[in-house]
Amino acid sequence: MILVTGASGTVGRPLVELLVSAGLKVRAVARNPSALPRSVEVVDRPVLEGVTGLFVNPRAVGDDIDGLLAEGKGVLKRVVVLSAVNVDDDLDMQPSRWRGDRNTEVERAVTASGLDWVALRPTTFAANAFGLWAEQIQHGDTVRGSYAEATWSPIHELDLAEVALHAFLDDGLLGTRPVLTGPESLTQREMVSAIGDAMGRELTYLEMAPEVARAALVGRGFPAGFAAGLLSLQARSVGVPALITNEVRRALGRPALTFARWASDNAYVFGRAA
């Protein structure tokens, strides 16, 4: 049985579906169990009885990771942890910490646990576009944001879920920290344009001054530290192609899915508000 933490999240939900399709038993720690297949056992906290594999979402597990791993000694055969490409950077350059992610601490705990492990280090999630731009696109054709020429290599959550499945089923990734990216470097302007293409709409990205963009993010509910960190990372990437690796192809035997594919898969989310 595989225990999936954060099972109704961006990566956890498709991973659960893939595990079930592969014929594996799944126990899921989830806030929204209605989104999961009926065959899944849903719990409100990690229960390791009968579990041989553990998928760790740092935001879901947080400071409980040490106790969970200690409980798993002699039980777990493999731990796959969702980490991040910037996990070794200074903490002030990891803006997702302001939203609850403890990638550095959790990855270090897993890799030092003495258990068999795989640490997945993805770049920016394509799904981050929901929080940054969906509301604006639902209400008009102009997206206001920071650093139009800042670059990302956004990764589709389906690729992350498939690599996580591969990490459970195959020994080839054991003891590694694969850096997982999308197949192309895109600017913020190009990403918004791709969403528009998927919707059959022409979207415009209007660059705001950094201080205005920071205030706008905070006004929409993002923590101030997150907004400052995000803008700092974007500023440093302007004119610099985003990192692209071949790790998705190496694991899955196919190219990583494009952002255009992600936009097509999720165009309905960006539809105009009623």
List low-confidence stretches: none
* Text of the CATH class of the domain at 1-122: Alpha Beta
- Share of helix among residues? 25-40%
Strand order, main sheet: write it out.
3-2-1-4-5-6-9
- The number of distinct helices, counting runs of at least 4 residues, comes to 11
By CATH, the topology of the domain at 1-122 is Rossmann fold
Mean pLDDT: 94
State the fourth-level CATH superfamily of the domain at 1-122: NAD(P)-binding Rossmann-like Domain
Q: What structural category arises from helix and sheet content?
A: alpha/beta
- Distance between the first and last residues' Cα: 43 Å
If you compute it from the alpha carbons, what radius of gyration comes out, rounded to the nearest whole angstrom?
19 Å
Corresponding CATH architecture of the domain at 1-122: 3-Layer(aba) Sandwich
Our estimate of the beta-strand percent is 5-15%
> What does the largest sheet look like?
7 strands, parallel
Strand runs, count: 11
Your description of this structure?
Helix 4 (103-111) links the parallel strand 5 (78-82) and strand 6. It is globular and about 55 Å long. The model has no long low-confidence stretch (mean pLDDT 94). It has 274 residues and is an alpha/beta fold. The strands form three sheets. Strands 3-2-1-4-5-6-9 form a seven-stranded parallel sheet, sandwiched between helices. A two-stranded parallel sheet has the order 7-11. The chain has a two-stranded antiparallel ribbon with strand order 8-10. The chain is built from eleven helices and eleven strands. The chain has a domain at 1-122: NAD(P)-binding Rossmann-like Domain (Rossmann fold), CATH 3.40.50.720.
